[in-house]
Amino acid sequence: MLVSKQWLQQFVDVSQKTGEELADLITKSGIEVEGVEVRDADLNNIVVGHVLTKEKHPEADKLNITTVDIGQEEPVQIVCGAPNIEAGQDVIVARVGARLPGIKIKRAKLRGVVSEGMICSLEELGFEKKYIREDEQAGIHTFREPVTPGQDVLELLGLHDEVLELGLTPNRSDCLSMYGVAHEVAGILNTTAVFPAIDVTEATDKTTLAVTLESEECPFYAAREIQHVVIGESPLWLKNRLIANGIRPINNVVDVTNFVLLETGQPLHSFDAEKLGQQIVVRQAKAGESFQTLDEVERTLDPSMLVITDGEKPVALAGVMGGANTEVDATTTSIILESAYFAPTSVRKTSRVLGLRSDSSSRFEKGVDPRRVLLALDRAAALIAELAGGTVLAGTVEAGTLQLDDHLIEASVSYINHRLGMEIEGTVMKELLERLGLEVELSGDALTVSVPTRRQDLMIPADIAEEVARLYGYDALTSSLPQEASRGFLPKRNQHRRQIRRLLQGAGLSQAITYSLTSEQRAMQFNEQTDLHPVKLAMPISEARSTLRTSLIPGLLEVAQHNVARQHADLAYYELGSVYLQRDASLETLPIEQELVAGVAVGLAEQHRAHGAMVKTDFFVVKGIVETLAEALNVTLTYEAAVIDSMHPGRTARVLMDGEAIGFVGQVHPALSKEQYGLKEVYVFELDAMKLHSKEPVVYQEMSRFPSMTRDIAIVLNQTVTASEVEQVIMQAAGPLLQHVTLFDVYTGDNVGENKKSFAFSLRYQNKERTLVDEEVTASHEHVVTALTKAFDAELRA
User: Fold this and answer.
1) What confidence tens digit (pLDDT) does each residue in 21-51 have?
2) What angle do CA 114, 116, 117 make, to 5 degrees?
3) Dist CA 451 CA 433 (whole Å)
4) Three-state SS at 239
5) pLDDT tens digit string along 238-260?
6) CA triple 772-778-779, angle to 5 deg
7) Are 200 and 381 in contact (CB under 8 A)?
8) CA–CA separation, 177 vs 197, rounded Å?
9) Which of 18, 35, 80, 725 has its CA 20 to 30 A from that of 648?
């Protein structure tokens, strides 16, 4: 919203404040002023000149020599190249010494002829082209109203002015008018706003116009009929007001409706009465109905749109834009002036669907003041009668009703002080609120505030507290530290996530973040839960992103494929993210969101070229990453052979924690990795991230100062026995001296027999309080051999 300080002065005395001072006060009261434009900042010494004579320049065909009366004793000679210069015109003259935007006028010679000044166009004074009459866009400006030579042009054009640009929030629609801003500024300055009296002189003849409402989206509609109007150019003062507020002058009737819109905030529209007829029907549009708006665009309507009709065809989109079929033009002699209250939701919907916004629609969308509907109609009728010579027929045609009652808000002094953290007396609050034009009753602690219809943003007691605070002054609010300072903390779930990321990054994996959507085919890969059903989007952007993922691995394989295709052959990535599991075949329930951590590794795990050492990524490298993660998180994992779709049948293990499966680790099936992802040998892991959490606290122990002793054991047992089962028996049988067990060899072949295999373990014994003796280690080791023989029918291997 642009606010002319010169215009605001007509309602509130702001003469003692500069634009910047006024902007500072308004901003501090809660409405941000985004900028202040001083319109005459680059202009001075510019006056009205009367062209006395005009002669052709003897040395230039396109130049003329003029003598101009600028209010001095003697006329001045000015050389002018404008094509529309003529003797007898009243023009704009920049005298010698004058300043224009980027120019300083000096006495000069043009082709040998002295020129003492410059005859100017409006564009040379800084006006945009859209504000300039078409016949003057290529030439100088001429005054059409009586002026006096030597008169200050800047005053005539309203340029001794400052324009404030208000950055209004959607709730402050009351300040989308000069009336609303005047109320606001009067409250800030503790003064009273004065508004012009409206007196409509009516003819004795009555209007025969009839209005019918057929839609609840228009609760009230009013119109006046004005005859014998003469369409012409608006007076200078009216054009100055519109230009200062960014609106292009058109003609006296349209300019008046725009002026009243800016002044009161109530949108109006004028119809050519002869084109419209004497019947107005407000209804919803019909499906497929077409209509040409004033911008000469043919628009197709639908039943959600509210239209004004002549009883048959639409003549305006209610609250948005008028129609070309009833446009006021140079031939118009009678008009119908409309002022109505349209439902904000209806106007917003029409504007959005058609992609058509206007000054009217923006105000109707936010809500106009119902008390100004008839006020604005009378104000515009009186101005049109004055400026266009119209005759206002007797009577205002009205249909429907308006809700004009004030809104009562019950609050209290103690409530407001508690909200603000201050101690303001009730009488002070009452005075502050009354400065805004609110009626206030104070009874003890109770405040009853009567809110007029123009302040639709005030609905609850908290709104009253805000009004008190901003008028009392936010600077006056006391500063205090909180009585109880609370410390921020990171939730345990987030701490756990952060720890997993840190550990995996320390293990050499880089983080990847992939799409939660994948194709239906890939959505079900790497999942051994057979009761899952894919969850598809109703409106996917593509088939490749149509289904919620149930595993993180397909996304990581896509990342690996992308990088390997760009010659990054050795890589390792991880992702911590959610998958979505749906076990209801009807898909009527929401899918379960589960947080997993997964990793993918391709190529070399380590390479030390200086030492000639290279370690290729294999099952044990990826399993080592999982075990490192488990050890750091203080959890114990075990493994068992597994057959999982999409995974290599002989190089895949299920990961168990406390006997429950929480994921898997292994090689992607070679056929899948090569055919679908173009990768030769890929190893992956995927675990339930939130179950990788130890319930037991980490216990730290002092390192022993005494040496350890190592014993190796090789046993032959059945193929079905797992290494983890053997480790558990060893740990239980060895007693407290056994500190660590390491599997260092697995052998199958003819030397151990059919359906048999050999495990070789290294056992490390240590006492934390003294040096071990050979006899006690041998005794402990024999317990281990006995336990293994009994548990698995194992045989020692020589």
Assistant:
1) 999 999 999 899 999 999 998 899 999 999 9
2) 135
3) 10
4) helix
5) 999 999 999 999 999 999 999 99
6) 100
7) yes
8) 17
9) 725
